[in-house]
Design a protein that fits this description.
The structure holds two protein chains of two kinds. By secondary structure, chain A is mainly β. Chain A is 0% helix and 53% strand. Chain A contains no helices and eleven strands. In chain B, strands 2, 5, 6, 10, 11 and 12 form a six-stranded mixed beta sheet that branches. In chain B, β5 and β6 form a beta hairpin. The chains are: A mainly beta, B mainly beta.
């Protein structure tokens, strides 16, 4: 059981380049999220998805796009990378249950550096 | 606007002593969930403890307990008998909305240092 898998784990980009981070989960979770982590700012929600084919903006969506064509995958795209997008990106997922904690399961993170 | 506030960027505690990490939150929802996650230096996010807004008793998980004061909108984490392995970053988080993890937001975190 792999849980949540993020690829790639590390990437260096030049300003203006584009890239896609892939998140895959094998737990049949309805909800998926992309966060970025920066020193002193915790984890900030970029975009999230409540189901296949649906996405929504989080706290810091500018400069990113997402897609969820399949339930198990959630893609985060940077169309034109900027140095301000240098960060560690975490994907997470959880169930949508009426009661209970619905704890987030996180991927291992993807470290992105934009030069 | 930040809805989860962790006012302690760093905390020191002596091994075997207890420590409290502060967390306050702001929400207009009646139904919400509060979480604490641990992030060791290796980087992974580890779930520690959960408190539902309707839970009348404070949550406990082993050496972790959550001091939930609803009227004050605080959800402090108490770690008893600190161990060297507790040195890590700790994040308070809140899920708004009933049931499904509609949106979970995090505080800025507190870095805990456990001294031998």
């Amino acid at each position: 059981n792999a849980g949540v898998t993020q690829t790639p784990k590390f990437r260096v980009l030049k300003t203006g380049q584009s890239m896609t981070l892939l998140c895959a989960q094998d737990m049949n979770h309805e909800y998926m999220y992309w966060y970025r982590q920066d020193p002193g700012m915790g984890l900030r929600l970029i975009h999230y998805s409540v189901g296949e084919g649906t996405t929504a903006k989080g706290e810091v969506p500018d400069g990113y796009n997402v897609s969820r064509l399949k339930k198990q995958n959630f893609l985060l795209g940077l169309e034109s990378a900027a140095p301000s997008q240098t960060s560690v990106y975490f994907c997470a997922s959880n169930f949508n249950q009426v009661s209970g904690a619905n704890v987030l399961t996180f991927g291992a993170g993807s470290r992105l550096t934009v030069l | 606007a930040q809805k989860i506030t962790q006012t302690q960027p760093g905390m020191f505690v002596q091994e075997k002593e207890a420590v409290t990490l502060d967390c306050t939150y702001d929400t207009s929802d009646q139904s919400y969930g509060l979480f604490w996650y641990k992030q060791p230096s290796s980087g992974e996010m580890i779930f520690l403890i959960y408190q539902g807004s309707y839970d009348e008793q404070n949550a406990t998980e082993g050496r972790y307990s959550l001091n939930f004061q609803k009227a004050r909108k605080s959800a402090n984490l108490v770690i008893s008998a600190s161990q060297l392995g507790d040195s890590a970053m700790y994040f308070c988080a809140m899920r708004e909305g009933w049931g499904g993890g509609f949106k979970t937001i995090f505080g800025a975190g507190t870095r805990l240092f456990v001294k031998a």
